[in-house]
Write a structure and sequence with these properties.
Among the domains are: about 60 residues, Zinc/RING finger domain, C3HC4 (zinc finger) (Herpes Virus-1); about 160 residues; about 70 residues, Herpes Virus-1, CATH 3.30.40.10. The strands form 6 sheets. Strands 6-5-7 form a 3-stranded antiparallel sheet. Strands 9-8-10 form a 3-stranded antiparallel sheet. It is elongated, with a radius of gyration of 37 Å. About 50% of the residues lie in helices and about 10% in strands. The protein is built from 14 helices and 14 strands. It is mainly alpha-helical. It comes from Dissostichus eleginoides (Patagonian toothfish). This is E3 ubiquitin-protein ligase TRIM47. It holds the Pfam family zf-RING_UBOX. Keywords: Coiled coil, Metal-binding, Zinc, Zinc-finger.
Length: about 450
């Protein structure tokens, strides 16, 4: 993909061939001098073929020296790149200037050119004086993502306030005064944070596995106690007269109902715990893959959302014997005239569920606290200073401040002076409002995470 993008930059969009005497229009697009001159002379309207910007008269065509030099270098190194160097294999970064299917493995990537070069095509960067100052790094793909779309400069810093990668010009304009560090420093900090999260998640998995074992043991003990109680009750009732047979049947029915309800509850808890364990293990594997990367930019751009390792609260019940066995045994030996009274009392106790609950609650980890504090600080940046609510269709003013499109438009239309509500910068006419794509994308991510947190209601068993 990178190779295709580089090749297209050296093709004239009119003749669809490599540039011949390239010139630039005032709008910044490049054409062959003969192609653009012929195009304008054959039409009544003089406009750029790409962006359709219209000019009253044919503008003066200028030579973009940097682009011309790059084109000459590409032509000179095309033949040199036909031999030498090892071919690119699956997983390698290919050279962007090698043509056809014989692409060789790149040895360096240039952050200024946004291209990767094999050893032969890298030669101009070693010999041409204008190219020696270009910043070369080990070969990586997706170089375009590392360049600031607003200022066309390499993003070498990370703004902690806005949680995004920025270039040197961004630090002087949109992010002036913000706390910023190098990508390498933030990369190390985030990797340490991910390691702590992975450790916390491993502990959570272990705790949940232990809880499953306790639940299984509880179910086995409960089932055994119920079976023992049923045997003892049967032995006692078999020696009684026909007058107490109805009470015996009632007691058996209650025991079966209570046991069935308890087992259904325990089985549901087991299923939920296994689902959570599977999700945590899957997230742990993804974190392991992210931790293996040494590309600080890739890690920061593709940093996965870190879920709470203990996002549910479970409890289960250790039940006492459903019957007060000794009371049953004492009751059956009493005389017939008092038996009905005692049996009614025992059945009432069983129906009331004479149990004690022991709740096993999972505690929130320190890492969860860090995430919640960070989320609280970031959320303030997504509030419009006019409506004091989360941005709706955020736009930026020329002074760099963000507002809802409807809010700032209504503010300017209702006042005689057009100025920024925050910094009070005044404009002669209402300026064109532009969309800050990076801020918009961050807002969408924040809204998705906020909605997810609202729906994740802790469950109690």
């Amino acid at each position: 993909m990178a190779s295709a993008n580089i090749s297209e930059k050296f093709l004239c969009s009119i003749c669809l061939d490599v540039f011949t005497e390239p010139v630039s229009t005032p709008c910044g697009h490049n054409y062959c001098r003969a192609c653009i001159s012929s195009c304008w002379s054959s039409r009544d309207i003089i406009q750029c073929p790409l962006c359709k910007e219209t000019f009253l008269t044919a503008p003066k065509l200028r030579v973009n020296t940097a682009f011309r030099d790059m084109l000459e270098i590409s032509k000179k190194t095309k033949q040199a790149g036909e031999d030498g160097g090892s071919p690119a294999r699956p997983g390698d970064v290919p050279c962007d200037l090698c043509q056809g299917n014989r692409k060789r493995k790149a040895v360096k990537s240039c952050l200024v050119c946004s291209a990767s070069y094999c050893d032969a095509h890298l030669e101009p960067h070693r010999t041409v004086q204008k190219l020696k100052w270009h910043q070369l790094i080990n070969p990586v793909d997706s170089l375009e993502e590392r360049v600031c779309r607003k200022h066309n400069k390499v993003m070498e810093s990370f703004c902690k306030r806005d949680q995004c990668c920025v270039c040197s010009v961004c630090l002087k304009e949109d992010h002036v005064g913000h706390d910023a560090v190098s990508l390498e420093e933030e990369f190390k900090a985030r990797k340490t944070m991910l390691q702590r999260a992975k450790t916390s998640m491993a502990n959570a998995i272990s705790d949940k596995c232990n809880t499953v074992i306790k639940v299984e043991n509880l179910m086995m003990e409960s089932r055994q106690k119920v079976e023992e109680t049923k045997v003892e009750a049967n032995q006692a009732f078999n020696g009684l007269v026909a007058a107490i047979l109805s009470k015996k049947a009632k007691l058996m029915e209650v025991l079966e109902e209570k046991q069935e309800a308890a087992e259904q509850k325990d089985e549901a808890l087991k299923r939920q715990l296994w689902l959570e364990i599977a999700e945590l293990r899957q997230t742990s594997v993804k974190m392991e893959e992210v931790l293996k990367t040494e590309d600080e930019f890739r890690l920061l751009q593709n940093l996965p959302s870190i879920p709470s390792a203990t996002n549910t609260r479970h409890c289960y019940t250790e039940r006492k014997s459903l019957l007060q066995v000794e009371k049953v045994l004492r009751a059956v030996v009493k005389i017939e005239e008092t038996l009905n009274e005692h049996m009614d009392k025992i059945i009432r106790e069983v129906l009331q569920g004479d149990t004690e609950d022991e709740a096993f609650e999972e505690q929130q980890t320190p890492f969860d606290d860090e995430l919640e504090m960070a989320s609280a600080n970031i959320s303030e940046e997504f509030l419009c200073s006019i409506c004091l609510d989360v941005f709706t269709e955020p736009v930026s003013t020329p002074c760099g401040h963000n507002y809802c499109r409807a809010c700032i438009s209504r503010c300017w239309s209702s006042g005689a002076i057009i100025q920024c509500p925050l910094c009070q910068e005044t404009f002669l006419t209402a300026p064109k409002l532009r969309v800050n794509t990076e801020f918009r994308d961050m807002l969408e991510i924040f809204q998705r995470r906020t909605n997810k947190q609202v729906t994740e209601i802790p469950k109690m068993f």
